[in-house]
Amino acid sequence: MDATFTAEQEEIRRTLRELLLKRCGPEEVRTAVQSEAGYDSALWETLAQQLGLPGLAFPEAYGGVGCSATELALASEELGRSLAPSPLLATAVLGAPLLLALGSEDQRAALLPRIASGELTAALAVPGASLTTALGLTGDNRGDWAGGGRAGGVQARRTDGGWRLYGQADQVLDGHSAGLLLVAAHTGGFARSRTLLFLVRDPLGRDGSGGSAGVTRVRLTSLDETRSQARIQLRDVEAELLGEEDESSDMAGALASVGDSAAAVLAAEAVGAADRVLERTVEYVKQREQFGRAIGSFQAVKHRLADLYVQVQAARSAAYYAAWATGAGEERVGGLALAQALEALRITSSEAVQLHGGIGFTWEHEAHLYFKRAAGDELLFGPVHRLREHAADAARLFGGGEVAV
Q1: pTM score of the predicted model
Q2: DSSP per residue, 332-385
Q3: Pseudo-torsion of CA 315, 316, 321, 327, nearest 10°?
Q4: CA separation for the pair 326, 76 (Å, rounded)
């Protein structure tokens, strides 16, 4: 592994940081999350059309830049520093890679260039709170998390004209505003139980069709407002099977692969957030005085900050390695990196609130935004102990109560 970044990678980081410093401060973030879309549409257009962020890891044949998960992780680290709300995670990290891995050539050619240009956003809808299981991060994704043939989840039914979906998915990232839904649904009944992915195109009716009939989408109130979530109800909705109907296709494997790369990107994003909140805390303790001197001069405070710095740097190393390993074809490292990064963000943000004193608990200060991001991400993609437990089980680290040689 080459630990140094290329000139192109450094340029991506520098350009994105400069842009976000100008256009995505704490007040801009608060304004963006209150908008109908849940993010700044003008900023998203700039990120897409001028920087090519949605298509950063796409092949050039589909309008992308042709970079790897490493560049996407570096970009996400900068977005994490400012807590910039955007559909990048749902679209370019979760939805588009599945379309690229499982979609037919016609589907890829029709949809990926629109995603790369920022014209189209996507969302992955899985039943209940099963996102991390579906992605193979906290459990085996070959189970019945999509419905299992019983009531609940999302069911798919074949008709003469194609497929119909019925069911509900909660906690769908950016699901209220996405122009394309990738829905995991159960089909086949008990005898031939299978989970497949389906496309629901233009659920918002932006092409003048009035939207997909039977789709109801409600934006949810979430702990972390910078990550918009929605409940999607499907009532006999017309859908299109993602890819070809081939029983030999490994959908679970594709989901796990996307989950591993998504975990690496999320880890980098969490590291960016932890690094920024630590910077802000160091700045504050240099200014706040107690007993006639800056509290940052007290040895106890120095020790706490030093411990946080070590934890953030260790998480950064793990995130960078996971991003590199994903591009190099090494599997099952993203979950461990994500666990370390989420833990670092949780501890750093909580310490930041404490060290900011009374102001750290107020709505006016941005410290609470980072704390909510930490708590919200662990609810969505964790918890940390389950990420580590599943990684250990997958690696067969422990067996029969003894450490495997």
Answers
A1: 0.93
A2: S-HHHHHHHHHHHHHHHHHHHHHHTGGGGGSSSSTHHHHHHHHHHHHHHH--HH
A3: 120
A4: 15
Whole-angstrom distance, CA of residue 73 vs CA of residue 16: 12
User: What pLDDT tens digit does each residue of the chain (405 aa) get?
Assistant: 666 888 999 999 999 999 999 999 999 999 999 999 999 999 999 999 999 999 999 999 999 999 999 999 999 999 999 999 999 999 999 999 999 999 999 999 999 999 999 999 999 999 877 899 899 999 888 877 766 545 568 999 988 878 999 999 999 999 999 999 999 998 876 556 688 999 998 776 655 455 578 899 999 999 999 999 999 999 999 999 999 877 656 888 999 999 999 999 999 999 999 999 999 999 999 998 888 899 989 999 999 999 999 999 999 999 999 999 987 878 788 999 999 999 999 999 999 999 998 787 787 889 999 999 999 999 999 899 999 999 888 877 776 555 544
How buried is residue 248: exposed, middle or buried, by Cβ count under 10 Å (0-12/13-18/19+)? Answer: exposed
- Write a three-state SS string for 238-255: EEEECCCCCCCCCHHHHH
Distance CA 333, CA 345 (A): 19
DSSP-H helix ranges across 187-298: 251-287
Structure tokens at 348: 């750093």
- Tokens 């798919």 sit on residue: 156
The number of C-alpha atoms within 13 Å of 377 and in the hemisphere containing its C-beta is 33
User: Which residue do the tokens 């109130």 mark?
Assistant: 221
Beta bridge partners of 169: 232
Taking the C-alpha atoms of residue 276 and residue 373, their distance in angstroms, rounded to an integer, is 13
Report the C-alpha gap between 55 and 66 in whole angstroms. 8
Distance CA 37, CA 350 (A): 29
Tokens of 227: 């990550």
Question: Do residues 173 and 228 make contact, with C-beta atoms less than 8 angstroms apart?
Answer: yes
Q: Are 279 and 256 within 8 A, CB to CB?
A: no
